[in-house]
Amino acid sequence: MKNFDAVVTREGKWWIVSIPEIDGLTQARRLSEVPLMAREYIAVTLNIPIDEVDVAVSVDSIGAVTGISSVLDSVATEREQAAALERLARRQMIELAKALAAESVPVRDIGTVLQVSHQRAHQLVNG
User: Fold this and answer.
1) First to last CA, the chain
2) How far is CA 70 from CA 32, 55, 74, in A?
3) What DSSP letter does each residue of 56-76 carry, written as one string?
4) Torsion of CA 87, 90, 96, 98, to 10 degrees
5) d(C-alpha 35, C-alpha 15), whole Å
6) pTM, two decimal places
7) Is the pLDDT of residue 60 over 80?
8) Which terminus of the chain is less hemmed in, N or C, by CB atoms within 10 Å?
9) Where are the domains of the chain?
10) Which DSSP letter does residue 33 get?
């Protein structure tokens, strides 16, 4: 499998697809068509089977909106960080719930302390 990057920009009603590795340029009417159009262009240009071509598509600009790929990369990083923080918070809640239960605090009161329902407190204590 050969991997290629396709950089997409919007011009009028068309998506312009640039394939820098082979200095190629094609277009598509819909963004969903871009991977296939790029794969077909690469396969024909390099005279290889289309099944051997994989394309990573990134949107560069749409009109005056530029740097779309960088913003999306930043958002993905921030989401990963948020997910890691969420996992940490969940572990801390479980540890606190279990510590309170070990001190014989009733589940309903654990829920009140943790600001969750008593059902959720029960899940945390027994999870």
Assistant:
1) 44
2) 20, 18, 6
3) EEEEEEETTEE-HHHHHHHHH
4) -110
5) 11
6) 0.63
7) no
8) N
9) 2-66, 82-126
10) G
